[in-house]
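Q: I'm writing up a methods section and want to include an example of the input and output format. Could you take the sequence below and give the corresponding predicted C-alpha cells, formatted cleanly so I can copy it straight into the document?
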Amino acid sequence: GYAIDVEDSLEVPIKKLALRRALVNLIDNAFNYGTKVVLSVSENKNNLMIMIDDDGPGIPEDERNNVFKPFYRIDNSRNLDKKITSGGSGLGLAIAMDSITSLGGRIKLSDSPFNGLRVVIYIPV
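A: Here is the clean output for your methods example:
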C-alpha cells in the first residue's frame, strides 16, 4: 500500500523535470524493495522537505554514502531481492542525487519508522 501526505496550500516554484526524475527513481526504488510506501511533503522557512518511507530491508548506515555512486551495488538483503537482481541498472539513486543537486538540494538516508529506508529530500525555497 501507499499513502501521500501533503500540507494544504503548499506551492514551491521548482524545475519540474528534475524533481520528477528524482521522485520517480526514489519512489520506484521504495516500491521495488518494500510493500508499504509513505510519501510526505512539507515546508519550513528554508526548505521543501519530501520524505519517502518504505518497509523494505533498508540500507546499512555504512553503505548510505556509497549507494549514490553510479552502478554501486550492496551485498545485503536489499540487493538480493529477486525482483531487483533480475533488473535495475544501479543508476536510480545516482540519478536522483544529480537531479536534487541540480535544484540546490540534498538527500539524506536514514531508518524509516517501518524498519525500512527513509529518504528525505531537502530543496531550498
